[in-house]
Design a protein that fits this description.
- The chain has 325 residues and is α/β, with parallel strands linked by helices.
- The protein is built from 13 helices and 12 strands.
- The chain has 2 domains: 142 residues, Response regulator (Rossmann fold), CATH 3.40.50.2300; 146 residues, Rossmann fold (3-Layer(aba) Sandwich), CATH 3.40.50.2300.
- Helix 10 links the parallel strand 9 and strand 10.
Length: 325
């Protein structure tokens, strides 16, 4: 009996050892992050990866990332959003209002982290910045007084400017707010602003033709996927028509635009990693307040200034965060 008892104990020990070894050999589940963009922007991917690295994540090692971009074809966003949902990713990071609209229709359960999104409350994505509600949280790229500052800087580089064209999209709710702010600022500065609606890429050249006809002396481009996807074409046409342009983001100026004043898109994407980390560790979007931008960039391209025959005043140059020479 004693021998049988010892054998029984040994048998149990062996079974436990096998069970432990089998459990140890089970592969650890690697979190899958979906990324949805209206336009392809590799620098934004790198900013997100940089933010994730700060929390110890490395693509291909302890996280997997599924990238999807509509490449400026907004009608593809619903299909791409549905694809990410079918892949059962753990969280989706997305930029632009159209991308969030597509995701909101595709899922009410998978957590969604906004990065470059305008007025998420007004767009109906969240209940409030402090308490988002639902499965969406993240960051917004809208802050007060941006429109006035952009007009003010255009006036400073050329005090003779009297008429400024504004590229807007009436189908984007946030643009109504930005347009109202631009109008209010123009009255204070003694400028006339001319609204030019752009809902598709084929309307860009028509808009430039209208600017020439209306004798516009400068241009402001409000942020939207259509103009972002045709960034290089717009800055080329602005240079060709010798029009000083004010753009929403620094990469517009790096592509050849004259000036930009606005939130740092790279910083917004990097900050998006903070939300991803919290969600992967169990936090719910409903409990994570939406952040407004804290880092703004004023960028000037002196090559473009020279090309259009404009001299930037020294006092304006001194305030720039970055000058492209």
């Amino acid at each position: 009996m004693k021998k049988a008892g010892v054998l029984s104990i040994l048998f149990v020990v062996v079974l436990l050892a096998v069970a432990v070894m089998a459990e140890a050999q089970q592969p650890t589940k690697v979190p899958r992050i979906g990324v949805l963009q209206a336009t392809n922007a590799p620098f934004q991917h790198e900013a997100l990866l940089q933010g994730l690295r700060e929390f110890g994540y490395a693509e291909g090692k302890n996280i997997a990332i599924e990238y999807r971009s509509a490449d400026g074809q907004l009608e593809r966003l619903p299909e791409l959003a549905a694809e990410l949902v079918r892949l059962k990713v753990d969280v989706i990071v997305a930029a632009s209002n159209p991308a969030i609209i597509a995701l909101k229709k595709a899922t009410q359960t998978i957590p969604i982290v906004m990065t470059v999104v305008a007025d998420p409350v007004g767009a109906g994505f969240i209940a409030s910045l402090a308490r988002p509600g639902g499965n969406i949280t993240g960051l917004t790229n809208i802050a007060e007084q941006l429109s006035g500052k952009r007009l003010e800087l255009l006036k400073e580089i050329n005090p003779k400017i009297a008429r400024v064209a504004v590229f807007r999209n009436p189908t984007i709710p946030t643009h109504a707010v930005l347009w109202k702010e631009t109008q209010d600022a123009s009255q204070v500065l003694g400028l006339k602003v001319l609204p030019l609606d752009i809902q598709g890429p084929d309307e860009i050249e028509r808009a430039f033709g209208a600017m020439v006809k209306e004798h516009a002396e400068a241009l402001i481009v409000l942020p939207q996927p259509v103009t972002s996807s045709k960034q290089e074409h717009i800055v080329e046409l602005a240079a060709k028509n010798r029009l000083p342009g004010m753009y929403p983001f620094a990469d517009d100026v790096e592509a050849g635009g004259l000036m930009a004043y606005g939130p740092s898109r790279a910083d917004l994407w990097r900050r998006g990693a903070v939300y991803v980390d919290k969600i992967l560790k169990g936090r719910k979007p409903v409990d994570l307040p939406v952040e407004q931008p804290t880092k703004f960039e004023f960028v000037i391209n002196l090559k473009t200034a020279k090309l259009i025959g404009l001299t930037i005043p020294p006092n304006v140059l001194a305030r720039a965060d970055k000058v492209i020479k």
